[in-house]
From TrEMBL:
GO BP, one annotated term: carbohydrate catabolic process
Active site per the UniProt annotation: E385
Family, similarity comment: Belongs to the glycosyl hydrolase 1 family.
Protein name (Swiss-Prot/TrEMBL): 6-phospho-beta-glucosidase
Annotated Pfam families: Glyco_hydro_1 (PF00232)
A cellular component term, taken from the record's GO annotations: cytosol
Originating organism: Lonepinella koalarum
GO MF: beta-glucosidase activity
Length: 486
């Protein structure tokens, strides 16, 4: 018997703002991601991210006073090349391909009354192309792509009015793609809002909020997203009962560095803060530990009558998450200090190696994560992002990325162990199956793909697609349903 279910969904995952391009074509409006300029690492530093945008910078960009380069406006030109790229995924044998719909391609300002037909047709054609190759689409409704119009009018998800605009958008695409899309997600890595960037995650420009109220503002925006997610879940169940809708979390498993109870408690709290988001999505209520945290830290959110009932009545069908690394935490001073990667912080785990970007590589942590989450929720799980960002070298027209194969093989082996443990796992989608623009740094040199794209960090290159060694390896993995990892 195979270690993986016969209908296991192997494939890959992307985001519109990192691959599409066509930022001003066919009626598309501006999105928050279109305002993120590239900042070279010699200015921002190797490990820091560059995704927040100030109110002044938005004004400078819109007025033409700022002349930066905006890689997420151009991506890898998937907007025009999607048929060829999907054919490559079909060649690998993909069972599932995750995309996001660029909200501003459907409702250019976010608050428009009527959708943009050209945008709707684009995704119609894309889904048809996927089905032609036997690929099931998975669609994220909001993947760091809040329309700029909603930021300008309401300060993004801080405005409760955005809930209704999101629900209109969700119902529009649910009705349009009924029967074409079986798997939906509401918000990508919804914990981004409080974890790192309220602008990236919720279109909120924090410098428009009093400093003393900024933490409350993040959770207020999050509350509105929780409500919108629940209402979208309700809508899909009514419009297309055969489809499934889930939530999506950046899962960050925390280890205590030592057996000191203080370290153990710090790790437990780190995991609670991370799983708070799926607690709300899957259990339908705010956990008591977060209510205590808010009370002790003067975090206040405004609810309306009926909000709690909406969350309770419309929980997700499945739980999806990204997994790239684990974190080690301690209450004891460390000589090495913080070793945080682009978005995350922790101390060095002496038992793990790290990627080129400082992300600690922990395949066993994926098995732990799968078991912990399934024990906690007893809902189906779906790994919708996992992969290795690395520097790739082209040698005589080839890319020998054995390091990527080693990374993915080790994680797939641990997935098989988790399934044997009894975890209900629906599928595995490798992040960035074709090289794309980095979310956190807007680089191209941080490559995840099985397919190399000839574009560099400065936007130069032919855009040519080249199959890496990992392309042929993953094709073999899928064909064998995870049996042949050699």
């Amino acid at each position: 018997m195979s270690k993986f279910p016969k209908d296991f969904l192997w494939g890959g995952a992307t985001a519109a703002n990192q691959i599409e391009g066509g930022w001003d074509e066919d009626g598309k409006g501006l999105a928050g991601s279109d305002m993120v300029a590239y900042v070279p690492k010699e200015i921002r530093g190797l490990k820091s991210a560059a995704i927040d945008v100030s109110s002044d910078r938005i004004d400078e960009i819109l007025s033409g006073k700022f002349e930066g380069r905006f890689p997420k406006r151009h991506g890898i030109d998937f907007y025009h090349k999607y048929k060829d790229d999907i054919a490559l995924f079909g060649e690998m044998g993909f069972k599932c391909f995750r995309i996001s719909i660029h909200w501003a391609r459907i409702f250019p300002n976010g608050y428009d009354e009527q959708p943009n037909e050209a945008g709707l047709k684009y995704y119609d054609d894309m889904f048809d192309e996927m089905h032609k190759h036997g690929i099931e689409p998975m669609v994220t409704l909001s993947h760091y792509e809040t329309p700029l119009g909603l930021t300008q009018k309401y300060n993004g998800w801080l405005g409760r009015e955005v809930i209704a605009h999101f629900v209109r958008y969700a119902k529009t695409v649910f009705n349009r793609y009924k029967g074409k899309v079986k798997y939906w997600l509401t918000f990508n890595e919804i914990n981004m809002v409080t974890m790192h960037s309220a602008y990236c995650g919720a279109g909120v420009v924090l410098d428009r909020v009093e400093a003393s109220q900024q933490e409350s503002a993040k959770y207020q925006a999050l509350h509105h997203q929780f409500l919108a997610s629940s209402l979208a879940t309700k809508a899909l169940h009514e419009i297309d009962p055969n489809a499934k809708i889930g939530c999506m979390l950046a899962r960050l498993h925390h280890y205590a560095l030592t057996a000191d109870p203080a370290d153990q408690r710090q790790a437990q709290w780190g995991n609670q803060q991370n799983l708070f988001f799926t607690d709300v999505h899957a259990r339908g209520e705010y956990p008591k530990y977060m209510l205590r945290h808010w009370a002790e830290n003067n975090v206040q959110i405004q609810k309306e009558v009926g909000d709690d009932e909406i969350l309770k009545q419309h929980t997700v069908d499945y739980i999806s998450f990204s997994y790239y690394m684990s974190l080690a935490v301690t209450t004891h001073p460390q000589e090495d200090g913080d070793i945080g990667g682009n978005l995350l912080h922790g101390v060095k785990n002496p038992y793990l190696k790290a990627s080129d970007w400082g992300w600690q590589i922990d395949p066993v942590g994926l098995r732990i994560t799968l078991n912990d989450m399934y024990d906690r929720y007893q809902k189906p799980l779906f790994i919708v992002e996992n992969g290795l960002g690395a520097y790739d070298q082209v040698e005589n027209g080839k890319i020998h990325d054995s390091y990527r194969i080693d990374y993915l093989k080790a994680h797939i082996e641990q997935m098989a162990e988790a399934i044997a443990d009894g975890v209900d796992l629906w599928g595995y989608l490798e992040w960035g199956p074709i090289d794309l623009v980095s979310m956190s740094t807007s680089e191209m040199s941080k490559r995840y793909g099985f397919i190399y794209v000839d574009i560099d960090d400065d936007g130069n290159g032919t855009g040519e697609r080249i199959r890496k060694d990992s392309f042929y390896w993953y094709k073999k993995v899928i064909a064998s349903n995870g049996e042949d990892l050699g």
